[in-house]
Amino acid sequence: MLECLAGAPSAQALPIIPVPEIPGNPYRGSDAPSRAYEHLQAYHGVSPGTASDRLHRIKQRSGVSPTTSVVIGRTGDVYHEMTGEHLGSLTDPAA
């Protein structure tokens, strides 16, 4: 329970949501796609345009909003940021 100043309304602590464990050193946050695209181009030969198209298809197929943040592994694996569910891979031509 949080202590409140005299006369201030009581506050509730926000719940702590655990971050799912994603293997490797993945890209997280709002700039994850752009950083991942650079890495995928340099190390896997996937152009940023192709990776972006695949990410949009993966999100659509998984029912994830286009604006929802995802976690992207260094091998192109895409995970739901909140659940850790594997959604697809940016290196998969079928994505």
Radius of gyration: 18 Å
Q: Looking at the structure, what is the overall shape?
A: elongated
Number of helical regions:
2
Q: Helical proportion? A: 25-40%
Which class best fits the helix and strand makeup? Answer: alpha+beta
Oligomer: single chain
Average pLDDT confidence is 86
Q: Report the major sheet.
A: 3 strands, antiparallel
Beta strands, count: 3
**Stretches where pLDDT falls below 50 for ≥5 residues?**
none
Proportion of residues in β-strands: 5-15%
Q: What order do the strands of the largest sheet run in, or round the barrel if closed?
A: 1-2-3
- C-alpha termini separation: 47 Å
Secondary-structure element pattern, one letter each:
HHEEE
Topology:
Elements: H1 32-44, H2 48-62, E1 70-72, E2 77-80, E3 86-89
Antiparallel strand pairs: 1-2, 2-3
Helix pairs in contact: 1-2
Entry summary:
This protein is of the alpha+beta class and 95 residues long. Helix content is 29%, strand content 12%. The chain has helices at residues 32-44, 48-62; strands at 70-72, 77-80, 86-89.
How would you characterize the overall build of this protein?
It is a single chain. The chain is of the alpha+beta class. The protein has a domain at 32-89. It contains two helices and three strands; from the N terminus they run H-H-E-E-E. It has helices spanning 32-44, 48-62; strands spanning 70-72, 77-80, 86-89. The protein has a three-stranded antiparallel beta sheet. Strand 1 (70-72) and strand 2 (77-80) form a beta hairpin. The protein is elongated and about 55 Å long. The protein starts with 31 loop residues before the first helix and ends in a 6-residue tail after the last strand.
